[in-house]
């Protein structure tokens, strides 16, 4: 459908799920445009070190304002992803938050906000089915 999707996942908060982020981005790209493809880059941590924080902020907030939907994988807690979610809500970008329920309890600031669509999952297959359903 060529929607502009902002994918949010932990970068500086931890890269344990980098491969999962990559796979989610590839799934989304089957039907839509991913503005934040770099989040799935398996070498991102080393590449990002040289970037100035102000440039990252300006680029990411511009992408958030132009996005049609935000999809966030929040199993790995991240201050940046939390900020992105709040920023997207401010600009009324629909937000879908995914997390592995057996590994983490999301912040009440996310689960208590009725704006966010919260999607707990256990397996990658279950996650992908939910994402496909949202993107249909």
The major β-sheet equals: 5 strands, parallel
Number of helices: 6
| Sequence stretches where pLDDT stays below 50 over 5 or more residues | none
Helical/strand content category: alpha/beta
Number of strands: 5
Helix content: 40-55%
Number of domains: 1
Report the C-alpha radius of gyration, rounded: 14 Å
Describe it.
By secondary structure, the chain is of the alpha/beta class. It has a single domain, classed as Rossmann fold (3-Layer(aba) Sandwich), CATH 3.40.50. It is built from 6 helices and 5 strands, in the order βαβααβαβαβα. Strands 2-1-3-4-5 form a 5-stranded parallel beta sheet, sandwiched between helices. α1 (18-29) links the parallel β1 and β2. α1 packs parallel to α6 (124-135). The protein is globular, with a radius of gyration of 14 Å.
Compact overview of the structure:
This protein is of the alpha/beta class and 136 residues long.
Name some characteristics of this structure.
single chain, 136 residues, alpha/beta, Rossmann fold, five-stranded parallel beta sheet, 6 helices, 43% helix
Chain-wise SSE layout:
Elements lengths: L3 E5 L9 H12 L3 E2 L9 H5 L4 H14 L2 E5 L5 H12 L4 E6 L7 H4 L5 E5 L2 H12 L1
Parallel strand pairs: 1-2, 1-3, 3-4, 4-5
Helix pairs in contact: 1-6
């Amino acid at each position: 459908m060529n929607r502009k999707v902002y994918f949010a996942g932990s970068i500086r908060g931890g890269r344990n799920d980098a491969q999962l982020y990559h796979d989610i981005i590839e799934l989304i790209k089957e039907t839509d445009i991913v503005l934040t493809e770099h989040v799935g880059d398996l070498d991102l941590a080393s590449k990002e070190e040289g970037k100035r924080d102000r440039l990252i902020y300006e680029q990411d907030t511009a992408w958030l304002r132009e996005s049609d939907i935000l999809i966030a994988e929040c199993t790995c807690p991240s201050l940046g992803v939390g900020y992105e979610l709040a920023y997207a809500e401010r600009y009324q970008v629909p937000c879908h938050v995914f997390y592995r329920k057996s590994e983490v309890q999301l912040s009440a600031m996310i689960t208590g906000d009725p704006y966010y669509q919260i999607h707990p999952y256990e397996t990658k297959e279950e996650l992908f089915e939910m994402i496909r359903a949202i993107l249909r």
